[in-house]
């Protein structure tokens, strides 16, 4: 996997990221999310995207629970999220 600097943050992120837009909370549950996230990490992905509006907030909850249950160190991954006014 190739890695890039994320702007001037000092963070190195994988060139490919995983986004949870239409998967977590609607199409797959916690166990499937853990399998998917593990596959991403095994292939070098360290950058994961989410948003509070994905599946009405459920996508963030599932990703967070999966990361917790997988025992990942927070310092090893980068998580981006978005919030929307409304």
From TrEMBL:
InterPro entries, per the entry: K_chnl_volt-dep_bsu_KCNAB-rel, NAD(P)_OxRdtase_dom_sf, NADP_OxRdtase_dom
Q: Keyword Secreted: yes or no?
A: no
Cite the NADP-dependent oxidoreductase domain residue spans from the record.
16-83
Instruction: Supply the Gene3D superfamilies for this chain.
Output: NADP-dependent oxidoreductase domain
What's in the keyword line of the UniProt record?
NADP, Oxidoreductase
Highest taxon, organism lineage: Eukaryota
Return one GO MF term: oxidoreductase activity
Which family does the UniProt entry place this protein in? Belongs to the shaker potassium channel beta subunit family.
Could you identify this protein by its name? Answer: NADP-dependent oxidoreductase domain-containing protein
Organism ancestry: Eukaryota, Viridiplantae, Streptophyta, Embryophyta, Tracheophyta
């Amino acid at each position: 996997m190739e890695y890039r600097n994320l702007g001037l943050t000092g963070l190195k992120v994988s060139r490919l990221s995983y986004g949870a837009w239409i998967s977590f909370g609607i199409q797959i549950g916690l166990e499937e999310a853990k399998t998917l996230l593990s596959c991403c990490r095994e292939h070098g992905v360290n950058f994961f995207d989410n948003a509070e509006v994905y599946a009405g907030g459920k996508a963030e909850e599932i990703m967070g629970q999966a990361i917790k249950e997988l025992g990942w160190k927070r310092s090893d991954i980068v998580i981006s999220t978005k919030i929307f006014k409304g």
